[in-house]
Amino acid sequence: MNIPLPVLNLSDCDPARPLRAFIGLWPDQAARRYLQEQARRAHGIYGGRMMQPEHFHLTLAFLGNSPVPALQALAAQLPDWTAPQVAFELSVQGVFQKPRVVWAGPDDSQRQALSVLQSWHEDIWARLQALGWERTERRFRPHISLLRHARLDGVDTREQPLPRQSFAPAGAGLIVSVPENDRSRYHLAACLGRGMMRA
Predict the structure, then answer these.
(1) Residues contacting residue 159 through CB under 8 Å, at least 6 positions apart
(2) How many CB atoms are located within 10 Å of the residue 162 CB?
(3) Would you state the pLDDT for residue 1?
(4) Handedness of CA 138, 196, 87, 101 (dihedral sign)
(5) Which residues pair with residue 162 across a beta bridge?
(6) Using DSSP, how many helices (H) and how many strands (E) does the chain show?
(7) 3-state secondary structure string, 101-165?
(8) What separation in angstroms does the CA of 182 have from each of 22, 144, 178, 179?
(9) What pLDDT score was predicted for residue 183?
(10) pLDDT confidence of 199, banded at 50, 70, 90?
(11) pLDDT digit string (tens) for 65-113?
């Protein structure tokens, strides 16, 4: 498990103050370096705000603003959740127009990896719903955000090929966004699977 984030003890958090959270999959170090370079190149075209290198991730389930007691209950269960073996290549760049996000991810030809990720996403949400979470997110498109607040007016928003880079998962976990000064910083609240990446 190698998620390069500070650890947050949820028992130290104010139970009356919801926290923005998600379950995310972290890339290995080589993929993080690649993503940082792609973010710099995208920034030269679209402007916006680049993701911090330690924040590069693939969101498996977005939980939004969540009650601390619910996050504590989820964190207690996450180590017992299994994770599939999955690896893929970052090979395409795309944009999400409404949130003004530029991202990198696997192209549609990587059907086996996309199928595994989709199944994992569905399994996670089935478990979350059993715990009382309400599913509200849109269609799942595996991606890693490169930058936010991009300038997209008059820009070709079709997916573009990227130099291929393998993405070997370094770990998955429950991540909480904690406001710090003028931006938020991600913290690791719990890791998914004691035997991460077992079949």
Answers:
(1) 92, 93, 94, 107
(2) 19
(3) 58
(4) positive
(5) none
(6) 3, 9
(7) EEEEECCCCCHHHHHHHHHHHHHHHHHHHHCCCCCCCCCCCCCEEEEECCCCCCCCCCCEEEEEE
(8) 21, 22, 11, 8
(9) 78
(10) very low
(11) 999 999 999 999 999 998 999 999 999 999 999 899 999 999 999 999 9
CA 9 to chain centre: 20
Residue 133 has pLDDT above 70, yes or no: yes
Per-residue pLDDT, 10: 95
In whole angstroms, give the CA distance from residue 94 to residue 156: 10
| Average pLDDT, integer, range 139-145 | 95
Give the separation between CA 179 and CA 192, rounded to whole angstroms. Answer: 24
CA atoms within 13 A on the CB side of 57: 25
Rounded distance between C-alpha atoms, residue 152 and residue 104, angstroms: 16
Q: What's the confidence (pLDDT) of residue 184?
A: 83
Distance CA 87, CA 166 (A): 7
Residue whose token pair is 């969540």: 66
- Residue 187 pairs in a beta bridge with 176
